[in-house]
Amino acid sequence: MTPLPPSTHDTAQFLDYHVSMLRDTVRTNAFREAVHATVVEGDVVVDIGCGTGILSLFACQAGARHVYAIDRGPVLDVARDLARRNGLADRISFLRGESTVLDPPERADVLITETLWNLGLGEGLLSTVSDAVRRWLRPGAAIIPGTVEVRLAPIGLRGLRERLSVADLDYGVDFSHLEAASRNVPRSMFIWPEAVRCPAQTVWSARLPYGGPETIPMAAEFVVETAGTVNAFGGWFRSDLGGGVVLSNAPPSAAPSWEQAVFPLSHAVEVAPGDRIRVALETDATADTTWTWATRVLRDGAEVAAFQQSTRDVRLLTSA
After folding, report:
1. Which of 41, 98, 106, 114 is labelled catalytic?
2. Is 134 within the bounds of a domain?
3. Which one, of 86, 97, 90, 85, lies nearest residue 67 by Cα?
4. Which residues constitute the domain of residue 274?
5. Is residue 120 part of a domain?
6. Which of 33, 98, 123, 282 is the catalytic position?
7. Contact of 48 with 108, CB cutoff 8 Å
8. 92 with 207, same domain?
9. Which tens digit of pLDDT belongs to each residue from 169-207?
10. Can 225 be counted among the known catalytic residues?
11. How many domains does the chain have?
12. Catalytic residue flag (residue 106)
């Protein structure tokens, strides 16, 4: 069967997504600075998840002898045409597919991969880099980004209940399974500074490549200073891309390509000064789209709320 051509709507969404990343000058200039600080004349570079190929073009500008640009999507054709129009087609090879499956034509001196989710983790960053180090890179190769730091804070986000809840809809239909599932999925949302209830804490950090255990535990305890509502945890990243270039999407984020990660609580909790909020967040380094988070709220040493949530529960519901 001949595949249907993309609709105008699909094409518009595709272009809007990639143009928005190019127009994010904070993100793009940060990576540009890191590439120019890292790549030297004659380097071989691999760019995993290349998108429009802008970082591959930066690598050529910095003096790369050759770049291998990898992407699994149709944007690879856009990247190839962009390289041709900028006179760099002979210095960039475009490879379609997953870097973990493709065979490297040669070993590279530098790895570039902009596979950072709103929390830093979440787009297979760790497993992608680990595979690249084993198969694509020469010993001692440079990696962009060089470090990833995950930061977390309790938040009270306006409108979150309305976004997640279907329990109040009067259609004569039982939506209870959707109600439960909707609170077990992390969201991408903008968090305004006034929604942050306690100062953020670093719950995990690593220099790439990551060589730790497959299960990544993150934990923190927050002491409430001001009374209010807590209905989620907000998360964001801080990364040293290389050459001392630091990029973060902490609220209010100056890099609009990223929102922040929001991990909803099963129910909102009213907190008071002195309350302690404990969270234990966990993900898998090999498949970092699975998340589990446990929350306890303590007042004068007594537990006033406790929740155990996981994206695994959503999978059970959808497969039932």
Report:
1. 114
2. no
3. 90
4. 148-319
5. no
6. 123
7. no
8. no
9. 888 888 777 877 888 999 999 999 999 999 999 999 999
10. no
11. 2
12. no
